[in-house]
Amino acid sequence: MFPTTVAGSLPKPSWLAEPDKLWAPWRLQGTDLAAGKLDATLLAIKLQEDAGIDIVTDGEQARQHFVHGFLEFVDGIDFARKVEMGIRNNRYKAMVPTVRGALKLKGRVHAAEAQHARAHTKRKLKITMPGPMTISDTIADAHYGDKVKMANAFADLLNQEARALEKDGVDVIQFDEPAFNVFTDEVAGWGVDALQRAADGLKCTTAVHICYGYGIQANIDWKKSLGTQWKQYEAIFPALARSKINQVSIEVINSKVPIELLKLLDGKDILAGVIDVATDTVETPEQITGVISQVMKFVAKEKIICCTNCGMAPMHRDIATAKLVAMGRGAALARQKFA
Predict the structure, then answer these.
(1) Is the pTM of this model over 0.90?
(2) CATH number for region 12-210
(3) 205 by DSSP, 3-state: which?
(4) In the chain, which end has fewer C-beta atoms inside a 10 angstrom radius, N or C?
(5) How far is CA 151 from the centre of its chain?
(6) Is a pLDDT exceeding 70 seen at residue 225?
(7) CB atoms < 10 A from the CB of 218, how many?
(8) Residue (of 175, 202, 204) closest to 191 by Cα position
């Protein structure tokens, strides 16, 4: 009861990349970098196991960014000529590469880290990838001329890699779709269809992570503008409930999402965020148990998985570690209390 996992990313060790940064520059090169990524993956697994995390991830140690870590392995993308584009409905601007030809994978994307992780843990293993809508919101298009067509092309590539990851022994494949709470009118139309296309044919557990973003200043400022209740999910949860995706990951602790909206996800496993990644304050096990008790008012306890609100990549490593330990202890306390 109340198994634990993380949304995906963990901070990288300082010898691999600059600490406390999103888009942290690598500190190694060539074969040293390739070896360092695998060493860091092993450290991430050990960190999670020691903290009592039941479903571990590779910590996204081999990627500089959750979207671009996939795009680097795709032909048809011009990284040399980047253009400025508004991201997440112009919440912030970024220099992004451009799609200039038909998309296809150069080869495997996450084989090295997935196979390395699988060989070094007996626990359930989760690998995350960006969802097709979020990719389409993070790259410029000079080829397809239609956002939906481009998203579906990316969905096919994601599915190709997901099927290979399943053969690698990955237990859970999660697609990250933060764009879902920005383009709510499009989610029920083509967003969920593209997501299901990415997950087509998978027999392993499938999940989607939707959130209000990393604990970076641009996201914190945006959330302040959303008022006392964040109700975007009300428009998209019914479509997700009808989908074939098994699990939905959503922030709970310190968020202003009306928790009763979880009823709209009836039938899904809920990865409930019990760890706030936007603060350095470490949660207590009692706080985490309290969050679980609130979720239990709307979700059957056997459907609840304890999780972080979002990825932890930009966090200070010691704080992230302490938060994972707290989550492991909080889930253990909840098992005792609600058995």
Answers:
(1) yes
(2) 3.20.20.210
(3) strand
(4) C
(5) 18
(6) no
(7) 15
(8) 175
